[in-house]
User: Fold this.
Amino acid sequence: MPAAASSLDYNPETRRLFVGLDNGTISEFLLADDFNRMAATRNYLAHQQRVVGINFSLQCEWLLSVGRDKFFQWHCSETGRRLGGFQSGAWCTAVQFDVESKHVFVGDFSGHIQVLKLETNGVVTQVTTLKGHSGSIRCLEWDPDSRLLFSGSFDQSIIVWDIGGQQGTAFELQGHSNKVQGLKFVGHTKQLISGGEDGAIVIWNMSVDRNETPEWVESDNCQKCDQPFFWNFKKMWNEKTIGTRQHHCRKCGCAVCAKCSANRSTIPLMGFEFEVRVCNACFANISDDERAPMATFHDVKHGVVAIHFDGTRGWLLTCGTDRIIKIWDVNALVS
Assistant:
């Protein structure tokens, strides 16, 4: 290869392999029947910098890619001709494509996701921008049946965007203690597999009706006991008291003081599989059934940088920061 490989996409039906390089080129290869040989067929001069994401659509014969040059590029895989492109405001980091609606989802380094519409005449139209992450987007996954978009970020969270509902609904999944590096959705079991640098593989049950996390309320006083927060000088002076720090209940979103939010609880329906701060009133109302976990956690003994799931065999492949590739039989977990 003329430069280091930085991304790839493989189509098993046609045995076509697309390899993105550090120099911005995408090289296409055709693998032999016995997988012992590969023949170079075409080079796409797609980007000016590293290619970080590739998505090949056999139905459309389109090759979609994103790179560190902040560009999304769209090529015809039959002729090699460039069909169109879009410039993002930051490094592009991930790409997913919906064949039915011809929508592309492009994640970037700023934590935003651009939703683009591809027209047959080569026009790329920006539909909207999804904003919810406080860190860079690392990975995207698309479920065409439920029309859900999953995004994993450096902010350690996963957001589930209900694209099909068209109501702006988004659910958070909090189960990692480090960057989320890989996502794979298992359609027939409605489970999401996530891998992170914390060395954990988490399998989420996505067949349940989850609740959105509330917007945090901003207030000058505790909404439970009326204790002033430390910036409310007027109330502190009038009542001759010392202000306290503001916290937020993860269940209702109220602004509360430490005394009124002394408890911690899991809230799996809201995606909180770890214990988080809740106000005393919400803690008393959370039942044991509501605390029942909706995800399973598995230690893979290395920081995960990429994952791949083979649904026919039930095998999960993880690539780690220790430069080791591991293959796991997860049939007992994904069923």
